[in-house]
Amino acid sequence: ACKYHPGVPVFHDAYKGWSCCNKKCTDFTEFLNIKGCTTSSHSNEKPPEAEKPKVDKSKAAEVIEYRPPVNNTPTLERPAFDALQVTLEPAVSPALLEQIKGLTNANEMSSNDDKRIKVGESCKNKACKATYKGDESDGEVCLHHPGVAIFHEGMKYWSCCPKKKTTDFSVFLNYPGCTEGNHIWIAK
């Protein structure tokens, strides 16, 4: 028995496949190795080639001319440099004023709640793993990185510690801080 594709190869948007089945791939070797979707007996006759669309040669000499669109609207002239400037009065709709008042009230309420530090809150300094356990946590030393994380060509490191580089992300996260300071429990 012969397994083959009765359809034609289709190459579209970096995908390769056959018109007779739905298997697609991006690698040409994979495309060549797609198993046939039809089984029948072997034949020594070449399959008929698909008809190619006929090209009308009478239009081959025709030149297509592009004409940009004509803008008939007159343009305003720029005022003189020393012309008087007009102050525009902003007009705010009452509906927008109500929304703004609602937002400021909500922000005031949430900012009052944010000032209390919750037990279990983690320090916001980079690479510090301390959590807030109560007022005694404020006296602890915070070991953190004041720099920024840098990811360059597979390497991960802190800008404040350029000699400590790694390719493993978990090792990078576990680097101890290089600077001592105070904990920051509430993000700014």
Question: How do the strands and helices of this protein lay out in sequence?
Answer:
Blueprint: E1 2-4, E2 9-12, E3 15-18, E4 24-25, H1 28-32, E5 38-40, H2 94-114, E6 142-144, E7 149-152, E8 155-158, E9 161-166, H3 169-173, E10 179-181
Antiparallel strand pairs: 1-5, 2-3, 3-4, 6-10, 7-8, 8-9
What do these coordinates show?
The structure is a single chain. The chain has 188 residues and is α+β, with helices and mostly antiparallel strands. The protein has 3 helices and 10 strands; from the N terminus they run ββββαβαββββαβ. The chain has helices at 28-32, 94-114, 169-173; strands at residues 2-4, 9-12, 15-18, 24-25, 38-40, 142-144, 149-152, 155-158, 161-166, 179-181. The chain has a 3-stranded antiparallel β-sheet with strand order 2-3-4. A 3-stranded antiparallel β-sheet has the order 7-8-9. A two-stranded antiparallel sheet has the order 1-5. A hairpin with a 2-residue loop joins β7 and β8. The protein starts with a strand and ends in a 7-residue tail after the last strand. The mean pLDDT is 85.
Write the CATH fold name of the domain at 118-188: btk motif of tyrosine-protein kinase itk
Written as H for each helix and E for each strand, in order along the chain, the element string is EEEEHEHEEEEHE
CATH architecture of the domain at 118-188: Irregular
Please state the CA-atom Rg, rounded to the nearest Å.
Answer: 35 Å
| Sheet/helix structural class | alpha+beta
Content of β-strand: 15-25%
Features:
188 residues, alpha+beta, btk motif of tyrosine-protein kinase itk, 10 strands, zinc
